[in-house]
Amino acid sequence: MGEQRVAIITGAARGIGRAIAQALSRQGAATVIADIDDEGARRVAREIEESGGRALAIPVDVSVPAQVAEMVREAADKLGRIDILVNNAGILSATSIEALREDEWDRVMAINVKSAVFASQQALPWMIRQGWGRIISISSLSGRMGGVSAGCAYSTSKAALIGLTMSLARQTADKGITVNAVAPGTTRSDIIRGFNAEQMERIMRSIPVGRLGEPEEIAALVAFLAQDTAGFITGAVIDINGGMFMG
Ligand SMILES: NC(=O)c1ccc[n+]([C@@H]2O[C@H](COP(=O)([O-])OP(=O)(O)OC[C@H]3O[C@@H](n4cnc5c(N)ncnc54)[C@H](O)[C@@H]3O)[C@@H](O)[C@H]2O)c1
Q1: Nearest to 178 by CA among 137, 144, 140, 217
Q2: What is the pLDDT of residues 118-135, one digit of tens each?
Q3: Is the shortest distance between the CB of 35 and ligand 1 below 6 Å?
């Protein structure tokens, strides 16, 4: 590889996104730690720099397309190119259909789906120009089989990411770009604090391997998809869930 690859990871201030940024950094990429949590993003960028990597923190609310455009512009200005985009930022909603309100629906769709659409729109021209690119979106088991404890807005948003993945994969397959989705089952991170004890118990009972996933396990899969050797995988949804869903 010639120049260092540049990876943007949204929602990388903690949890799965942080682990993905660390894994891509170990794989040689310069990383953009993009998150609404500015302080957390700077902390992760510092961690990566301290372990010998190159990282840039960019504050962004991914639900606002203008901020997403600015994020990609700043990353390209400062690091010179965009090779890998990981659409990871997301929020959980465990609200039932009966209790769901329009503002919650709009927020979940804006943060979980609209973000990925417009980030991809902004990053793709760079990848097309370079003749190489990777877009990886973090979907969910909930988008594959309906959530065990997650609500319908969340499941819908994660299924929508799969549609987006297949659509973009078809449009870019002949351009050296792959577009894939990773669908984790319940993984140890702050997001699952949104489940109450009874919901967690229901989840734990439904995991055949008998434990939660670890952020590093999701990150290893994403890092693999970002490699040259994964160039024949596109438009795929890869399940990683301890056997909760076997499709
Ligand atoms: N943990 C799980 O069990 C699990 C399972 C399946 C899918 N996922 C998905 O994995 C992704 C990462 O989740 P996590 O478990 O690490 O959760 P997390 O809550 O620990 O991390 C989410 C990150 O996204 C950031 N974020 C939230 N809203 C944002 C916004 N508007 N703009 C920019 N950044 C924003 C947060 O600040 C945080 O750093 C999410 O898309 C989530 O839906 C998680």
Answers
A1: 137
A2: 999 999 999 999 999 999
A3: yes
